[in-house]
Amino acid sequence: MTTLRQIADRQGIDIATVASAAILERQGVAAVTVGVRNRSHLISNVAISGLALTAQDHDLIAGVLAETRPLEGDVYGLERDHWSGNRALNS
Question: What is the pLDDT of residues 23-57, one digit of tens each?
Fold first, then answer.
């Protein structure tokens, strides 16, 4: 989050916009799912398509991702776990 915050602050936008733009620039990714609760979210989401991440931005994000470990197991397990506290996901 710190890296995304640094990029967002430099660009004058929010972290979600940076994250969404970075994901959309990955090969094989055609869309991201975004939420809109109010008009300000809509404005931020529209900004995703106009954001140009720099080579330095990509390098910073890649550096963070290189330090993470992949999720273990089935990534959809939470949605399938009927005993979890996430009842909304299970209905």
Answer: 999 999 999 988 888 887 888 888 898 999 999 99
CA-CA-CA-CA torsion for 1, 22, 24, 47, nearest 10 degrees?
90
Closest CA to 13 of 49, 56, 38: 49
d(CA 31, CA 24): 6
Residue of 34, 39, 38 whose CA lies nearest to 19: 34
pTM: 0.72
Dump the DSSP string for 5-29: HHHHHHHTS-HHHHHHHHHHTSTT-
Token couple for 47: 């900004």
Question: The tokens of 55 are what?
Answer: 């080579």
Looking at residue 83, the DSSP 8-state letter turns out to be: T
Residue 16 CB contacts under 8 Å (≥ 6 apart), including other chains: 34, 44
